Amino acid sequence: MHYAAAHGRLDRVKWLHANTTEQCRYDTMAVAARNGHGDVVRWLQHNRPESHKSMTHRIMDFAASRGFLEVVQVLHEERKEGCTTIAMDGAAGIGHLQVVQYLHAHRKEGCTPAAFDTAAANGHLAVVEWLHEYRSESGTKAASFGAAVNGHVEVVRFLLNHRDSGYVDEGIRLAIPNLLVKGDSVVLPLLLTDCPELFPLFSMAMAAENGHLDVIKLLHPTRPREDIEEALVRGAKNYPAIVDYLLENDKFSTPVLKSAVDRARTLAVSVKLHQHILPEANTVNVFGLAPSPKPCSRARRKAKKPMLLARRQQFACT
């Protein structure tokens, strides 16, 4: 009977109940509830009291977190164990709006900011909008951070349009470096339009260091001079395409070009950078070898003294 109940076979459970003396296990109802079989749970509640012994509030928490609305309804109507805030938090995190709405209407446990945060991070826009409208528990920076780094652009747009507290900006500020490093092309355009002030100083340099040319092209028109110069220096290390783009679309001072040459790992990049250095300052060693210093005049005079003395001694002997 336990295994029939665990697999949702209510017809077999009823047959065994009517035709055998087989007993349920103490945790049969809990297992049926965890597996989402609300009809079995309701039948066991009225017919097999020995199956109830392991029931606790954790069962409704688990059922809600899995989106088992029927089980949640049965447990609320038939049992007294109740649930905790984990129930609504879990339902929100996996996007089960109907379960969230049912708990909101029939239970008093409520939720925590984790409900909003996980719903946003997992891209459940409908749940985020509903929680924002009907619940007082606001999210944290984890909401905007999670939505941004996971690429949920519609959730990010909603959060930016409802920036009624500082947590949205804080989360976005933390997310931007992650997006730059991985070369995001979905969320970054929105952030660059709606909140450019949240980008760190060397945003373009971060993208260049990781080889994301598309992000470089996106950021280039809006970035300060020091960021563009640092992008050239970092891009020269491994990414010729980034160097080509920046040299074709911007101008750089000789010191910046020399710094880029020092970072370059390929001869082709070094030569290309070398060609853009001003002729009058064109002293960059393409191969990265330091030129041998010329001896000063005093050193040359000192080097000649032993030779002169030797010649004088030779003439004196003759």
Automatic annotation (TrEMBL):
Pfam families, alphabetized: Ank_2 (PF12796)
Annotated signal sequence range: none
Name of this protein: Ankyrin repeat-containing domain
Record lineage: Eukaryota, Sar, Stramenopiles, Oomycota, Peronosporomycetes
